Amino acid sequence: VIHNYSRCVDGVLASFRRLLACFFSMPNFQSPPVCLQLCPHASHTYPTPALQIIMKFFTVLALATTANAFMVPTSFATRGMKLFANPPNYDDYGDFDEKVWGLDEKKIVFEKWDPSAPRTAQNFNPFETFGGNSPDASGRYPGEPRFKDPMRPDMNFAAMTEERNFLENLASNPKAGDAPGAPGCRN
């Protein structure tokens, strides 16, 4: 049997209306036979090919309209965002940049640190934390421009114990001038 789809346009629209009526009027989807009636002009079941095209169009349209939810924001959306209120402006890197950044190197930088002088890549407290993060070998914290993940030494229990004892001693005997708000402090 050759089916003439042009004669089915009214049947397709009627089927589409029945489909919408089913979705909006059925409280539970227990009775689908109302939606699955035979097309009066041919021997195929609902949905007709024309209605399949319409349904595919609306499916693609629904997917296209929700695709923006998964897009990365453009520079227009993130233009005014700042990670830190006042990030330090460094023009150079520290003495131990691209070298191992362990306790001995931190002690050397700490000895040179002057809390009353402005904070630079050469003048910072390597034991000061900011937001729970430790600085790199140039005094920058994660999220700041030009932060580099430092090369860390191999650790063992003895080295960790030595570092903990040193930090406890440092906390009980801070350097003169080490106070929040000092020019050489980040906090």
Describe this structure in words.
This protein is mainly α and 187 residues long. It is built from 5 helices and no strands. It has helices at residues 9-25, 49-66, 75-78, 103-112, 157-172. The protein is rod-shaped, with a radius of gyration of 35 Å. The model is unreliable at 26-38 (pLDDT under 50).
| Approximate strand percentage | under 5%
Q: Which parts are unreliable, with pLDDT below 50 for 5 consecutive residues or more?
A: 26-38
Structural classification: mainly alpha
Number of contiguous helices = 5
Largest sheet: none
Distance between the termini: 84 Å
E-strand count: 0
Compressed to H and E, one letter per element, the order equals HHHHH
- Rounded average pLDDT: 74
Percentage of helical residues?
25-40%
Based on the structure, what is the oligomeric state of the protein chains?
single chain
